[in-house]
Amino acid sequence: KLSHELFAPAPPELVHQCYQIRHEIYCVKLKWEPMPKDGLEYEDKDSWSLHVLVHEDGLPVATTRVTPLKRYPRVAELGRTAISDSCKDRKEARRLLVKGLKKILKDLKIKHCVSLMEDFMIRLESRYGFMWEKVGPVVTHNGTRSFCYMRLPRG
Question: Is 38 helix (H, G, I), strand (E, B) or coil?
Answer without folding.
Answer: coil
